[in-house]
Design goal:
Four copies of one chain form a homotetramer. The first copy, chain A, is mainly beta. Chain A has helices at 62-71, 154-159, 167-170, and strands spanning 5-14, 19-22, 28-41, 48-60, 77-90, 96-104, 110-113, 124-125. Chain D binds two DNA strands through strand 1 and strand 3.
Chain lengths: 173, 173, 173, 173
Amino acid sequence: MAGSVNKVILIGNLGKDPEIRTFGNGGKVANFSIATSESWRDKQSGEKREKTEWHNIAVFGEGLVGVIERYVKKGSKLYIEGKLQTRKWQDRDGNDKYTTEVVLQGPGTTLTMLDSAGGQGGGGRMGGGGSQGGGYNQDRGGYGNMDQGGGSRSASTMEGPKGDFDLDDDIPF
Amino acid sequence: MAGSVNKVILIGNLGKDPEIRTFGNGGKVANFSIATSESWRDKQSGEKREKTEWHNIAVFGEGLVGVIERYVKKGSKLYIEGKLQTRKWQDRDGNDKYTTEVVLQGPGTTLTMLDSAGGQGGGGRMGGGGSQGGGYNQDRGGYGNMDQGGGSRSASTMEGPKGDFDLDDDIPF
Amino acid sequence: MAGSVNKVILIGNLGKDPEIRTFGNGGKVANFSIATSESWRDKQSGEKREKTEWHNIAVFGEGLVGVIERYVKKGSKLYIEGKLQTRKWQDRDGNDKYTTEVVLQGPGTTLTMLDSAGGQGGGGRMGGGGSQGGGYNQDRGGYGNMDQGGGSRSASTMEGPKGDFDLDDDIPF
Amino acid sequence: MAGSVNKVILIGNLGKDPEIRTFGNGGKVANFSIATSESWRDKQSGEKREKTEWHNIAVFGEGLVGVIERYVKKGSKLYIEGKLQTRKWQDRDGNDKYTTEVVLQGPGTTLTMLDSAGGQGGGGRMGGGGSQGGGYNQDRGGYGNMDQGGGSRSASTMEGPKGDFDLDDDIPF
DNA sequence: TTTT
DNA sequence: TTTT
C-alpha cells in the first residue's frame, strides 16, 4: 500500500547487554530490550504512579550491528527510530506465538547513542534499502540458523564499503 | 525514568470496523487494527516484494472513542500517534499470552483522519493526562469487564467537559 | 484544516543559557537555541564533512518554563517535540522580517532532559490545550511587552493547578 | 555532534504547484509550500479559532524530484519527513536574509502521497546519503545557478539506477 | 497559496 | 532487565 507510515521512536536504556547473532550468510542481528517509563498522578488517590515498558529491539545489518557490538551495553541510553513488526513462531510444543519488535532495517531506521559519559558518541543510520527479512518463522522465538532474507550479500549491500554512510568508518571516535 | 520517549507514528487503513467497548465505570475503549506496508526490490532476484504489517490499536477515553464511533470505519485512513504497550493475559487454558498494542491514552497521543472522501474530517488529541490503564490482566486477550485503571471518573476526567479540547464539541462538522 | 500534522523532533544541546521573559498577563516564554549536526562523507573528495544547524526554540506556559528556568542551561541536552511556526515582525527600520521557531505550546509538545550528569532529570509535557499565541507581531523580533494571546489567565489555564500534569509538582526531584 | 536528531514531520496540502529547478550539474530541486492548521477554542471568548501555518519545503535529488514533477500538484496532500535547515542569503540591496526550510535530502527523509483521489499513490525515500547542500548562499533567496553541493554525480548516486528504491521505477501506478 |  |  502506497501512502503508509510505520515509525517507532524510542529513547530509553538497555536492561542487559545486547545479544549478537550471525546468520549463515554472514548477516548479523543485534537483539536487546530498552525500557521507557512514564509517571503520572492518579486522579483518585492523588498518588504518583509510574509504569515501565520494555521494548524488544532487533537491528539488522553489519554496520549498525558493528556499532552496537562495540559501544552499546547494559545501561546505555539510546535514541531509536525503527518500525513495528510482529512475527509468528512456534514454541517447542508447536503452539503459535507472536512477538512484536521494533526493527531497525532499511531506510528510515536509525540509532543514536545518548550517553554523555565515557563510551558515548556514535550513531548510524541504515543505508538505502536492502533486502527485507521477508519471513523468519523459526522456533523458540529466535531467528534460528536461517539465512536472513535474501542471499549472502544482502547485509553488506545494505551498508557496505560503497555505502554513503560507511558505518564502521564514520563513527567519530 | 525521566528522559525516556515512547512514540509510535502510523499511517494506514483499518481492516475492519472498530470495536467499541464500555467499562463498568463508563470509560470506553476502541480497538481496531490498521495495515501498513512497504515494498522493496529484492537484491538477488530483482523482483518487487511487498509486506503488510497489521497493528493493533487501543484508544481510551470517551472523547476520542466518540470520534471513532462516529467517523472511523473499515477502510478509513488514519494518522495515529500513540505509545507502545505490551500487556500480559491468560488464555482459557491458563497460558500466559502477550499482546503488544499501540495505545492512545494521555498526553502526546493523537488521531487524525486522512480520508478526503465522504466520511472524513475529524481528529482529536488526548487531554492533559488522566489515569493510566495500570494493569488490565484479563482473559482472552480482551479488556473484559474490568474497570479501567482508576475509579469511575478516570475516563471522563481525561477529556471531559472541562477539557481544553472538548472533543465531542470541537469536531468541525 | 482537519487532517494536518505539524511536528518537529529535535535532540541537541543549548548553545547558551535560556532567556526567560514574563508577559504582562503573567505568562512566560523561554527562548533558547539548540544545535544539531550531521556528518557525511563527501562523494567526490572522500573527506568527512560536518554541518551544524541552530534551531530557535520558544516555550510558552508557566509550568514548562519553570522547569527550564531551574534545570536547563548552556550545554544541556534536550529532546524536544514542538511545532514549526513562522512569525513576522518589523525591525527598527520598518522592514519585514520573518523568524521561524520551534514552538512548545499546547498539546503534543514536550521537552525531556537527556543529561545523565548532575543537573539532569525533569521533563514535562504541555497541558491539554490552552490559548494559542494567535498573533504576536512586535518589533525587533522579540515578543515585546504584549499579552500572550488571550487574556490574563491563558498561560495559567494551560497548565495551572488543575492541570493533569502539575509540572511544578510532578518533577521527580 | 554525535547524538543529535533533526526531524520534521508534516502532513498538509500544497498551496500551489511545485517549482522544479535544475542545477548546472544535473541535480534537481523541487520547492513548494504546504499548509498545516490547528484549531482550538479560546479560553476567554469561548470562540473557535484557527491558525494556518505555511512551510517551505525543498526536495533534492532526481528520484524524489521526479516523483514530485509527475504526481504532486496544487492541493495534493503529503506526508513529509525532513530536516530543519536555515540558509542565509542576500537580497538585491545586500541585506542578509534567512530562510528556514524543511529539507528532504539524504537518509531519514521521505515523502508519501496521501491523496485518495485520482493522482494518488506514490511515495519515495531518499537513498543512503549523498552530498549535502553544503552552502548555497545566493541572492534572491533562491538556489541560483549553482552546482548543488558536490559534483555531477551526487544526485544520481543518491538514488540512481542501482538504488534500492528505484524511485522512477517503483511508483506503483 | 492549500485543505476541511 | 535499565534509568531517574
